[in-house]
Amino acid sequence: MKTLLDTSFLFFLLGFDDMDSIYASPEDFKRMKQRDRMRGLHLLEYFVNRCHQIGVACEAWIKSGDPKEVICHEVKRVLPDFLVVGCRGLGPFQRVFVGTVSEFCQKHAECPVISIKRRAEETPQDPVDD
């Protein structure tokens, strides 16, 4: 039986294409993209460093596209033992119209999927702040 130390991890930073609408200047969009990219890079750096600290092999990739499609494509390519995805905790109204990446992956990924849901107090009141 595999242990955590026998497992190799693969982390992705995905450019989200699911923004409804926003009024902003071209400069605003540039700043948003830079800010989001930096946040994502810091997250990847944290997870990669943490894995190396505890002796777990990992890879980190930056991909663009629809997150659910990219994740399921990479699952087919990499053939992991399991997939771990985070849940933003969308409300029922948002789930109906937007759907969730974690639900899609649970249905379509060709491996077991573990969804990690954040605590209610960590969910922003306004989805725009997510």
Automatic annotation (TrEMBL):
<dbReference type="InterPro" id="IPR006015">
    <property type="entry name" value="Universal_stress_UspA"/>
</dbReference>
<protein>
    <recommendedName>
        <fullName>UspA domain-containing protein</fullName>
    </recommendedName>
</protein>
<dbReference type="InterPro" id="IPR006016">
    <property type="entry name" value="UspA"/>
</dbReference>
<dbReference type="GO" id="GO:0016208">
    <property type="term" value="F:AMP binding"/>
</dbReference>
<feature type="domain" description="UspA">
    <location>
        <begin position="47"/>
        <end position="115"/>
    </location>
</feature>
<keyword id="KW-0732">Signal</keyword>
<dbReference type="InterPro" id="IPR044187">
    <property type="entry name" value="At3g01520-like_plant"/>
</dbReference>
<dbReference type="Pfam" id="PF00582">
    <property type="entry name" value="Usp"/>
</dbReference>
<dbReference type="InterPro" id="IPR014729">
    <property type="entry name" value="Rossmann-like_a/b/a_fold"/>
</dbReference>
<feature type="signal peptide">
    <location>
        <begin position="1"/>
        <end position="24"/>
    </location>
</feature>
